[in-house]
Amino acid sequence: MLPLSLLRSVGALKYASAFGITALFVVIIYAIGRGFNFGTSNNLTPAETTDFVSFSVGTSLLFFALNNQFNTIEIYSELTDRTPMRYTKMIFTTMLIISVLYVVMGLSELMEFGANVTGNVLKSYDGSSPLAAVMIIAVMCKVTFSFPLLIFPTRDAILHLFGNEDLKAANQKLYYGATVVIAGGSFAIGIVAPTVTTLFGIIGSLSVGTFAFILPSLYFWRFSILSLMTEGIAEDTWVSKVHIAVNVLNFVIGCFIIVAGTAGALIEL
Predict the structure, then answer these.
(1) Domain of 237?
(2) How large is the average pLDDT for residues 97-123?
(3) How far apart are CA 86 and CA 258, in angstroms?
(4) I want to staple 39 with a disulfide (CB 3.0 to 4.6 A). Which of 11, 112, 119, 141 is the partner?
């Protein structure tokens, strides 16, 4: 985990990422196989819940699963022949594939375990089974090889705070020191955290609520139509009003995600 995090470019992780994706497909194939062999379609019956905690944590986990915008800048900067349109198509295709895999995995788990399905897939299987052991090892490999993708943007942000504009040429001691501190801190939090579901719920609500909802709304407020209207540059049209209404709603949703998701995850402690 740490050696991979010491690399200076996302492109250097291509082989590790390929191995991680392979491990992910091992998990999905195992879950699908068990779902068809031991599951029943009766478990797919929708269940209503009024449990605010479960709803909040589940929503936060969903947002966390699709939370990848922190890598977009670095990935885009390393693309060859990059254009906004090409990158948009790549992101759309990637998110579509990921969403399909999540749905297939979730339905397979639901078919087998029904209402007893857990937020952590590892808790659902008997580790003494050889196939289950392979699946658990595959999950560990996937998490390990994905970890540097979280380290990179965190380290970049810290180095920027220390005035390093060219991160690839940053001082080695500062670069490696920041990496070790972040990786060590993450490991310590992982040891102390009671459950991965709670941890992901908190991270998902804080990061997604902030980066996907609140900050875009604030950027719009500062740099887009509303700012131009305030300065008398843009016309007061229905299009402008719709943009304003949507961004206000977006801001409110972001605040709700942070409060509800974090509160729900903490209540589960």
Answers:
(1) 193-269
(2) 79
(3) 32
(4) 112
